[in-house]
Design a protein that fits this description.
There is one protein chain. This protein has a four-stranded antiparallel beta sheet with strand order 4-5-6-7, with helices on one face. Strand 1 and strand 2 form a beta hairpin. Helix content is 23%, strand content 30%. The chain folds into two domains: 41 residues; 66 residues, no CATH class. It has 135 residues and is of the alpha+beta class.
C-alpha cells in the first residue's frame, strides 16, 4: 500500500532556473480534497518533510529570532523572509540587501517600492531597538 499523498499532474514551469512540477492530491489531507490541484514543487523530496526536513545551500538559522517571515499583501501575495545573521532579504528569485530590495521594488512599481521600503526600515528599527538584548 502506497503512503503517497500527491502525484505530479504533468504540468511544469521554469522558476529561478529550476523546473517545477504541479501536484494533485491523491487522498484527502487536512484542507485539501483528493483530486484538487496543488502548488509547484521541484521534487517529491519537497513534500511531507518534518522529522527528516533538510536545509540546503548556505542557510544558517541559529534560532527562530534569526529570521522574519512576512507576506506581500499589496500585490503578489508572495511570502518573503529576512535573515538577521546575514542581513539579507529573499523574495521570489530576489536575494540581497534591504537597499537592493527597495531599489528593485521601486523598479517594479511605486506601491511595491513604498511598501518594501517601510518594511525594510521597520526591521532595521527593530534590530536597532533590540541590539543590546541580542548581544
Amino acid at each position: 500500500m502506497s503512503n503517497k499523498k500527491y502525484e505530479f499532474t504533468g504540468e511544469t514551469k521554469e522558476w529561478c532556473g529550476h523546473t517545477l512540477h504541479r501536484i494533485r492530491a491523491i487522498i484527502d489531507i487536512a484542507y485539501t480534497k483528493a483530486g484538487e490541484i496543488g502548488g509547484w514543487i521541484e521534487s517529491e523530496s519537497n513534500l511531507s518533510e518534518y522529522d527528516n526536513a533538510k536545509v540546503c545551500g548556505d542557510a544558517k538559522v541559529k534560532q527562530s529570532s534569526d529570521y522574519i517571515l512576512m507576506k506581500n499583501c499589496w500585490s503578489s501575495m508572495r511570502w518573503f523572509t529576512y535573515t538577521s545573521s546575514n542581513k539579507k532579504w529573499k523574495v521570489g528569485c530576489f536575494h540581497g540587501t534591504g537597499e537592493e530590495l527597495i531599489k528593485k521594488a521601486y523598479a517594479d512599481s511605486e506601491t511595491s517600492g513604498k511598501c518594501y521600503e517601510v518594511i525594510v526600515r521597520a526591521v532595521g528599527a527593530i534590530e536597532e531597538a533590540t541590539k543590546e538584548d541580542n548581544q
